[in-house]
């Protein structure tokens, strides 16, 4: 479907944040390899999470969904699948990468594949680390890229990894580590990108009874053990909330988002700090966050290496500032569902902004904006950032707008219910 978004001004809206996609993935996968039966409440029902359900089912894990919760029968650290398994992960890079780690907890080969775009997204550093820890790794196409076949068992030991491409490689190894036959030590070279997602991973692991010994983001150690089943409630998603805040910043007025954890380790929580620097007023009360803009926006310089999922959101807001905005530390966005640096530049230019791009930066020079047709290339975050441009400028049409189902299936409905 195509959605055309019209200009709005001086909004006063209130919405609820959907459950966190990052927490939903991790809690679901960890519960799958825990001892006993876990209940995960307020779990996100979105395309990527449904892919993870399907993959876990192929691996022999039983899940039962009841409205906004799921009951997971854990396998106790040993995958029950008794023969070769082939699983399709579609466009969900998180599913493929996190499940590659637990695929090493069985003795039968597990072949993980995905879409055409997925086959262009590297997994080599993860495969190398799992191989060092005892898993069998075989690429059936281009070396270092899906399809990748993983065979257990995971023995343990010490692995080194470059964390500068994806934090999901780190999370995958850490999640599987307690179920290895001996202790696992993971050493990272270079400063890892998106390191708050590593914090999310270790936080969920600890909630399920496994402690990770670490020295910052360079060294991690996990002793053999078992995850303990539990009841777990998913917190709100700061990445998804950013689009609502971005609409207030671009259009003027006030937006309140409920069901957010103000102390969350989610890196995209820093988005409200960026808006504050640009001239918005931010207030927090309980689990509610309000962003209000009544005056002009100013451009900023910001490193967003730790909050990659809100880069497109901030870039859309930056188009309405009175001075340029430079966003750096984002080279890893080229390996996402699309090349998000190129996609963001294309979208902004279509609406009249001037954009400079480099290997790891975007600079947005505000110019008079106008309506346009945005083709997100099936990238959910490009589509939702396009909505911000529509509400700020008017007459912006987002093609294939249903691609938001990947992370936020109720996005367009939430906007309608808010009166936008």
In short:
The chain is of the alpha/beta class.
What is the topology?
Layout lengths: L2 E3 L5 E6 L4 H12 L4 E5 L5 H12 L3 E5 L2 E5 L11 E4 L4 H11 L6 E4 L10 H9 L3 E4 L8 E4 L5 E6 L4 H10 L7 E6 L5 H13 L5 E3 L3 E4 L8 E3 L4 H14 L1 E6 L12 H8 L2 E5 L2 E6 L7 E3 L7 H8 L6 E4 L11 H11 L3 E4 L3 E5 L6 E3 L5 H14 L2 E3 L12 H7 L3
Parallel strand pairs: 2-15, 3-14, 6-7, 10-11, 18-19, 22-23
Antiparallel strand pairs: 1-23, 3-5, 4-5, 7-9, 8-9, 11-13, 12-13, 15-17, 16-17, 19-21, 20-21
Helix pairs in contact: 1-2, 1-3, 1-6, 2-3, 3-5, 4-5, 5-6, 7-9, 7-11, 9-11
Summary tags:
420 residues, alpha/beta, UDP-n-acetylglucosamine1-carboxyvinyl-transferase, Chain, four-stranded mixed beta sheet
CATH superfamily of the largest domain: Enolpyruvate transferase domain
Gyration radius from CA atoms, angstroms: 21 Å
Structural class: alpha/beta
* CATH level-two architecture of the largest domain: Alpha-beta prism
Global outline: globular
Biggest sheet character: 4 strands, mixed
Give the amount of beta strand, in percent: 15-25%
Distance between the first and last residues' Cα: 18 Å
């Amino acid at each position: 479907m195509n959605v055309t978004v019209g200009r709005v001004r001086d909004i006063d809206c209130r919405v609820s944040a959907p459950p966190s996609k990052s927490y939903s993935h991790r809690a679901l996968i960890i519960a799958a390899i825990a001892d006993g039966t876990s209940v995960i409440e307020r779990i996100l029902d979105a395309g990527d999470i449904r892919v993870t359900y399907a993959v876990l089912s192929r691996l022999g894990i039983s899940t039962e969904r009841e409205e906004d919760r799921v009951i997971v029968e854990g396998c106790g650290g040993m995958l029950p699948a008794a023969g070769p398994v082939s699983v399709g992960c579609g466009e969900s890079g998180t599913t493929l990468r996190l499940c590659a780690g637990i695929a090493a907890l069985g003795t039968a080969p597990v072949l993980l594949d995905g879409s055409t775009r997925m086959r262009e997204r590297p997994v080599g550093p993860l495969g190398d680390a799992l191989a060092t820890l005892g898993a069998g790794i075989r690429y059936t196409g281009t070396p270092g890229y899906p399809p990748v076949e993983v065979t257990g068992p995971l023995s343990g030991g010490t692995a080194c990894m470059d964390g500068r491409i994806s934090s999901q490689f780190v999370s995958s190894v850490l999640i599987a580590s307690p179920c290895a036959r001996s202790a696992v030590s993971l050493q990272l070279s270079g400063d890892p990108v998106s390191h708050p997602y590593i914090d999310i991973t270790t936080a969920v692991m600890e909630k399920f009874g496994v402690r990770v010994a670490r020295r910052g983001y360079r060294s991690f150690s996990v002793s053999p053990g078992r995850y303990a089943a539990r009841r777990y409630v998913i917190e709100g998603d700061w990445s998804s909330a950013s689009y609502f805040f971005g609409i207030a910043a671009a259009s003027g007025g006030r937006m309140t988002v409920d069901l957010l954890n103000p102390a969350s380790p989610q890196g995209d929580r820093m988005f409200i700090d960026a808006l504050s620097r640009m001239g918005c007023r931010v207030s927090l009360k309980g689990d509610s966050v309000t962003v209000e803009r009544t005056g002009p926006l100013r451009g900023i310089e910001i490193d967003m290496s730790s909050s990659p999922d809100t880069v497109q959101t901030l870039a859309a807001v930056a188009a309405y500032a009175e001075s340029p905005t430079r966003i750096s530390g984002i080279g890893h966005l080229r390996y996402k569902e699309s090349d998000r640096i190129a996609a963001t530049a294309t979208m902004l230019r279509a609406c009249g902004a001037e954009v400079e791009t480099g290997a790891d930066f975007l600079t947005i020079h505000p110019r008079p904006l106008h309506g346009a047709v945005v083709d997100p290339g099936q990238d959910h975050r490009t589509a939702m950032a396009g909505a911000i441009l529509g509400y700020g400028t008017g007459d912006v049409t987002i093609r294939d707008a249903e691609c938001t189902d990947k992370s936020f299936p109720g996005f367009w409905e939430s906007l309608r219910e808010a009166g936008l």
